[in-house]
Amino acid sequence: MNRKKVLVLINPNSGKKNSKESVLDALNVFSANNYQMEIYLSQKPMDVTRYIEENGERFDVVAVFGGDGTLNEATNGLMKLKHKPVISYFPTGTMNDFGTNFGLTNDMKQCANIACAGHIESFDVGKMNSRYFNYVAGFGAFCNVSYETKQELKKQIGNLAYIIKAIHEIPNLHPYHVKMNLDGKVFEKDLMFGLIINGNRVAGFEMVEQADNTFKDGLFDIILVEHTPNPLELYNYPLGVLHPELNMKYVERYQVKSIIIESQEKLAWTLDGEEGEETLVARVENISQALQIYARN
User: Which of 42, 108, 154, 253 has CB atoms 3.0–4.6 Å from 22's, for a disulfide?
Assistant: First the structure.
């Protein structure tokens, strides 16, 4: 019987970091199941993307030890390959937004056992201009919150750290005039920010109603937050985004497959919680069930 080949990619600087013992526990599970492994430690940003592009097609599985940002790098490498290995994800970041969709926790040995059990799920991948993302693309105000919030604060109080950072940003907010095309529906608005979500969670918060297939239905959930002339209402933005049942008038929600956003000034973007590009035009599309991942059955 042919041994499965696993490319093990480890980000040693991920949020909660990888203890040697927990990583070894996971690798021992692969070894006990007769997997052949090659191990690489990332050295710098986008290193994981480069390594997968150059070596990924030789493997059956890509095992990613890191946070959602590391997984984003892996996805950007995998999407360039003709033969795409299955992902085995070992989430070591602070929030683990993406892994939660598939029953994956920061228990490394458990994640390895899930991979060896062999249950595979497909998931949609987003593409924003030339970059890919797994679960969220955000633009406008608050884009810096995910990657500028201090790591130590996130470790101490979890996702509340994002709320605190966002509240501090509110006095400096300004609206962006944008022209939007949502699956052919065209309109113009003054927006504060927007989120394009594939899945349920962002920054540790449930932002989309729970459903079994939100990560593979071929659609994005869009949250658009309009400008309000009342400064006091600015402080209700987090509440309106986190609680769709409140139906706040300046928060709009859509389900679409593709989006084109044009703005009069460059919009800052974040992809999977990492800093993205600033651009006048963003073309975002949902690539349905583009990749596969080992998931809890």
Answer: 108
CATH architecture observed for domain 5-118: 3-Layer(aba) Sandwich (3.40)
With tokens 């065209």, the residue in question is: 186
Chain centroid to CA 249: 27
Topology of the domain comprising 131-288: Tumour Suppressor Smad4 (2.60.200)
- Our CA angle for 164, 128, 119, nearest 5°, is 85
Confidence bin at 47 (pLDDT 50/70/90): very high
The residues spanned by each domain of the chain are: 5-118, 131-288
- For residue 218 the two structure tokens come to 């071929």
CB distance 103 to 114 below 8 Å: yes
Size (the chain), residues: 297
Residue 7 region, left (φ>0) first, then alpha (ψ -120 to 50), else beta?
beta
Which amino acid makes up residue 294? Answer: Y
* Residue 214 pLDDT exceeds 70: yes
CA dihedral (294, 207, 72, 150) positive or negative: negative
pTM here is 0.85
Q: Kind and range of the H or E element at 237?
A: helix 237-242
